[in-house]
Design brief:
327 residues, 2 domains, C8orf32 fold, alpha+beta, 4-stranded antiparallel β-sheet, 5 helices, Immunoglobulin-like
């Protein structure tokens, strides 16, 4: 009997220990966000673009097409490690600047339905440090024309280019004079418009599109090839007031060097001038070249056309980019 009671006691003690509540685990703190040093040689990013369309009308569109610019391989600075595109059915389009686009046909969109486009990339950006040398030699006769938003033949722009470059001995010195003038005189104010170079000389304020358009126009007016670039820039919290993620900058063609990146918007602060003239930390992601790519029809990054018939209305929701620095 005693042995039986002892056995039952041992069983109860075992069950009591087994049923005792496990201690609540202490939640782990969120990992600190990755940080980017201005001297880092390479950085990896995840970039996600999402566009959502909603048919709020009473009929499906007769036809609906969407063109979305694709992030390119661009040696030596940009390498695409992976890319996924949804929907998977699309046609590839290449414009006059060599930019690539995914063309989606979203015509099958009944009333009340939603369609989503998502592009997801992992990419690697390499720091650029360009030795400008003596900056002497011939220049090609390309990217010199006046065009919409880059009014290089405007009398005020031509006069300003002549004034700023008069005593500068090389193309590098001329572009640097334009760059410094823009940083010293333009006031940054995001306007969400596409005003261009001529408007940047007025009192309305300017954002990256005006800063960059004016630098391109002044360079072309001085006979120096220059082209407009749109893409993304990764800014840490302390830099968030300098620009937006969707960003524009410039490439100028310099003797014996070739195409050289310059960012007049981020370089407007005197303390950052050297960092963004021929030197780029690995925080710029190229998407398109050209101020007015025909495929974009005046837009940036993507464009959308539909034929509504009599009662179709397509609304665009939740369009934008997410950019994350990877460890």
């Amino acid at each position: 009997m005693r042995l039986r009671l002892l056995f039952l006691l041992i069983i109860c003690l075992f069950l009591l220990a087994a049923c005792r509540a496990a201690p609540t685990p202490v939640p782990l703190a969120d990992p600190a966000p990755a940080t980017l040093s201005p001297t880092a040689p390479v950085a990896r990013y995840e970039a996600v673009q999402e566009i959502r369309f909603v048919n709020t009308g009473r009929a499906r569109p007769e036809q609906q097409l969407v063109w979305v610019a694709l992030l390119p391989e661009d040696e030596p600075g940009q390498r695409i490690l992976s890319r996924s595109i949804l929907p998977a059915a699309y046609d590839l389009v290449i414009d006059e600047y060599g930019n690539h686009y995914a063309e989606f046909d979203l015509s099958e969109m009944p009333p009340g339905s939603t369609r989503r486009i998502e592009l997801r990339y992992e990419l690697e950006i390499t720091r650029r440090d360009i030795d400008l040398g003596d900056c002497l030699g011939p220049l090609p006769t390309i990217y010199l024309q006046s065009e919409l938003h880059i009014e290089s033949n405007n009398p005020r722009i031509k006069a300003l280019a002549d004034q700023l470059s008069a005593d500068q001995p090389t193309p590098c010195a001329k572009v640097r004079a334009f760059y410094d003038y823009i940083g010293d005189h333009l006031v940054y104010s995001f306007n969400g418009q596409s005003w261009g170079a001529q408007a940047a000389l007025g009192p309305m304020g300017a954002d990256c599109s005006e800063f960059s358009s004016l630098l391109v126009a002044l360079s072309r007016a001085a006979g120096i090839p220059a082209r407009y670039v749109e893409g993304l820039v990764y800014l840490q919290a302390a830099e968030s007031g300098l620009a937006r993620t969707e960003h524009a900058w410039v490439e100028v063609f310099l003797p014996e060097v070739g195409w050289t990146p310059v960012d007049p918007t981020l370089g407007r602060a005197a303390t950052l001038r050297e960092r963004y003239f021929g030197h780029f930390p690995p925080n710029h992601i190229l998407i398109t070249r050209g101020r007015n790519p025909s495929t974009l029809r005046g837009g940036s990054y993507w464009t959308h056309l539909y034929w509504p018939g009599s009662s179709t209305t397509i609304q665009v929701q939740d369009q934008g980019w997410q950019l994350r620095l990877l460890d």
